[in-house]
Amino acid sequence: MKQLKKYDFLIVGSGFGGSITAMALASLGYRVCVVERGDHPRFAIGESSTPVADMILRDLADEYHLPFLKRLSRYGEWQKHHPEVVCGLKRGFSYYPHQKGELFKSDQNHTNELLVAASVDNENSDTNWLRSDVDHFLVQQLRKMDIDYFDHTTIYGVDKIVDQWNILAERKNKKLSFTAGRIIDATGSSIFAETFLDATSTSKGFQTNSFAVYSHIKEAAHWQQYLNQNDFHTSDYPYNPDHSALHHLIDEGWIWMLRFNNDLLSSGMVIDGSTNNDLHGLNADTIWMEVLKQYPSVQSLFKTALPADTPGGFLKSNRLQRRLNRTHGEGWVALNHTAGFVDPLHSTGIAHTLTGVEKLLKLFRKSGSKAEIQKGLELIEVNYYKELAFIDLLVSSCYKSRGHFQLFSAAVMLYFAASIQYEQGRLNGSTPDSFLCAADDDLFAMVELTHAEISSLREKGFPGKEVADLVERVRARIAPYNSVGLMDDSKRNMYEHTAVVL
Ligand SMILES: Cc1cc2nc3c(=O)[nH]c(=O)nc-3n(C[C@H](O)[C@H](O)[C@H](O)COP(=O)(O)OP(=O)(O)OC[C@H]3O[C@@H](n4cnc5c(N)ncnc54)[C@H](O)[C@@H]3O)c2cc1C
Predict the structure, then answer these.
(1) How far away, in angstroms, is 45 Cα from ligand 1 center?
(2) Does the pLDDT value for residue 453 go beyond 60?
(3) 364: part of which helix (H) or strand (E)?
(4) What domains can you pick out in the chain, each with its CATH number?
């Protein structure tokens, strides 16, 4: 057995979360080792980034001397410096509701369209990350920094002896042993923590109940083209909807379409598990085809499409909502996507992961005592559970209102209002303690109340007058956070620029 050197941190998992954490800790002078069970490049889901994620990347780049992160924070810079790392242009979020068995319908006022631009132009735009490329690129950077990195490595033994972890692993039939002061669980799932770190995971207590089928696809047709060919009026669109996180709302849930520059399309559907239990037992390809065929406009985009070589077909998730009972313990801490997840509707995953990474790095940056670090981790944990609960309410408000597009559009604005508040805080130099300002009691209470009211209107079948009244109340409720003109009827669902900073 080969005895390896002693590390301050062992990072388990080399998604972007683990790699960025490893590089920043190394730049602070810590001895870091990263263990990955697979290798890169590999297929990974979770690709639509946001202005918040971009802001954090820029700050991490400056704080921890990782300049390449900044170059991945705007589409223009990314293309200039790293065109070999595939991404897609993402100008904002677009939403289109579809009725079962019917072609898509809208009107001159864009009644059934909602486009919310984040950036004003392509140069400063946000991106869709081809995760296989991005994660691979980051691992190449950490190798250049001489950080010890073991791929194809399975950890099978984890023992805590006083202040050290003794870790047993196997790589290509060779036994390895690691010693580390702390473990950072960056595996993006609860399994490692449940197996080795005395944590348990649950799906109980979430408002949202959903699962996903997803894949990468070649040669899918473009939605903008469909709209133009069918005489929809798009000349006043703030951007081409194929250059956005494109959401098609359906009875079963919603379908996403995210394009990359190499003509690959990430697409999938998230199914509302509370109302579609019958679908869960089917395999992924069947779910995709059975649901898609009921929405002819969306289906037409996939007529000539082929599965991409990787992953080669549709994959199906379990229920997406999960939460560990603790985010840290004696000598270990989990990154945010390991500790829990709600749903990809608002593309919160990348940004949430990065806010967690940023908080941990701040904590380990100071050479605090064990007790101070423990206190810091406890505070992070308290806020983390608020964040998860807040995202859950934001997402669930949208699921519950998606049968009524005007109400859905108001529910989506709760997310944009929270994002703006968070971005504004960072821009003013006082980064909020919690992602999306979830720990702001007034904001949380406002979203909780609106969620309850939406739930009640759904039970009643969305009565017109009551829906209109609630939309007005949401307009008034988000007003204190709304510095960018959300819910301005004169914009006819076309919002030009909503991110606070580019
Ligand atoms: C269906 C779906 C769609 C999503 N869409 C979006 C989106 O559009 N936008 C967004 O912002 N977020 C999205 N997310 C969330 C996003 O996927 C996560 O935020 C992101 O992947 C977290 O990155 P990570 O590096 O923490 O973990 P991961 O990307 O999960 O990486 C974990 C790494 O750990 C490795 N690993 C796992 N177990 C072990 C082990 N035992 N030992 C060693 N290595 C191990 C894995 O091989 C992997 O390389 C989505 C999530 C899902 C489920």
Answers:
(1) 7
(2) yes
(3) helix 349-365
(4) 2-82+130-204+327-364 (3.50.50.60), 89-128+210-316 (3.30.9.100), 395-495 (no CATH)
